[in-house]
Amino acid sequence: MSGTTTAAAGPRRRAPGADAHRWVVLVVLCASLLLVALDATVLHVAVPAVTEDLRPGAVELLWIVDAYPLVCAALLILFGTLGDRVGRRRVLLLGYALFGVASAVAAFSGTAEMLIVARALLGVGGAMIMPATLSILRQAFPDRRERALAIGIWSAVAAVGAAVGPLLGGFLLEHFWWGAVFLVNIPLMLVSLPVGRLLLPESRGERDGPWDVTGALTAAAGLFGVVLAVQRLGGGEAVASPFTALPLLTGAGLLLLFVRRQRRLPYPLVDLRMFRRPAFSTSVGCIVLAMLALVGLELIAAQYLQLVLGLSPLETGLRLLPLTVAAMAAGLAGARMLRRFGPRRTVSSGFCLTAVAVLTLTVMGGADDPPLLLAGFVLLGFGLETTLFGAYESMLSEAPADRAGGAAAIGETSYQLGAGMGIALLGSVMNAAYAPALRSVPGVPRGASDAAGHSLGEAYEVAGRLGGPAGAALRRAARDSFVHGLHVTLLVSAGLLLLGALMALRLPRTMQCDEGPDGTGAEVPAPREAAAGRPRVSA
Predict the structure, then answer these.
(1) Are residues 175 and 285 in the same domain?
(2) pLDDT at 454 over 90
(3) Is residue 248 included in any domain, yes or no?
(4) What tens digit of pLDDT does each residue of 250-276 get?
(5) What is the pTM of this model?
(6) Helices (DSSP H) in 109-241: which residue ranges?
(7) Phi and psi (nearest 5°) for 176?
(8) What is the DSSP string of 403-457?
(9) What CATH number did the domain enclosing 114 receive?
């Protein structure tokens, strides 16, 4: 493992931007991250208004929602490694410009097709912005202790953006038309472009050899196929369906070709040797597993609050707000936890705390229990953010500084893939536990039972059409079955989280600071070593 250089190895080389204004750099990067995080969720509340205005078909509506995350995930590696080659600030500023233009096109789209194109362009801009922010942050904060605090603030901003998106969208829809949810991006971009040009440091990695255009396109096409298949699975498509199997097999084949190509090239697009570092590969695995265990669960929890407890969308958002506040607190406290406990205990404890939260929520039933939900969501938010913060920080610090863009892109891609797979996996578990009990409800025809087995919302619609004792029995059975399915899903999620806690035991025991000869960190002396006379590094 890297990181054997001692703290006394001499004066540390300061990277571009690592001066007094590096905290201003962090503010600019957090502003751009907030924008991307907002755009990932702000459209959710606008879907009904978009549907009413543009009248998209079912497939078109699916692409309106999915085009942004799909394109963004597919292009992260391409633009992350391009930033390493041509300059990370340059790619970031181009992403700002494209994001602003695409937002204007989306806001004034007159057809579903135009909105899909605009959402895809927003995905391209997001793929330029996301890895660039992390890689510039890696360069601007060479001291790992400061970098840990910066990443904690960065991750807290991401949590705020994801939570504020639906609330902001709802406010704008109450006062303006649906295009306003996109127009809000433009003023922020108009400010970010000149400020970023003036304040952000330019940095790039080694430029030996040509940039592997063929490899970049192969990776993009492969990721597009895999993410598309995962999204189809999350939407309920069968694994054997050609719309799932074909993109999955094609994407996996292209990614295999990409890996083989990178191993042969003298100057690869992505340095796969990073995965030989236990801290790097383990961190990537922890990110995937954390998202795999929890993203689908969050969607199911929102349905529970609205359809089982009968809360309004606003009340649901307020109930989930403690989760976001706890995540922000964990992000801000993460640097101190990482210094005190080290990556291994921090990430493993985060997984365990999240598993405790998930098991606590298995007590949920058909009746509302606000104290239980509050405790569960607070533990869930704090544990999840602790896990993700520790994994991201370890991954980014373990990667060589000149490969920061590629490393950041790998982390973001892992996040997207884990989220998609989580929706597919936990959604399948939920459906398997929910549907069987509805096949034998007294007085309910078989066709109605089959339709009710698709989702709780559809079961309520079928029950309303049936009416009478049969409708009431179906509604009650669907509600009880959903709660049972939720409990099963929670148990599966807890098992995945405990598996993540075991995986995290491969991370370094202590935090590593100081840049080593390969651009990675050197281990912080333990307290007894410092007392023995080894000089310590000031933060």
Answers:
(1) no
(2) no
(3) no
(4) 888 988 988 888 888 877 777 777 788
(5) 0.75
(6) 112-140, 144-175, 180-183, 185-199, 213-234
(7) -135, -175
(8) GHHHHHHHHHHHHHHHHHHHHHHHHHHHHHHHSGGGGG-TT--HHHHHHHTT-HH
(9) 1.20.1250.20
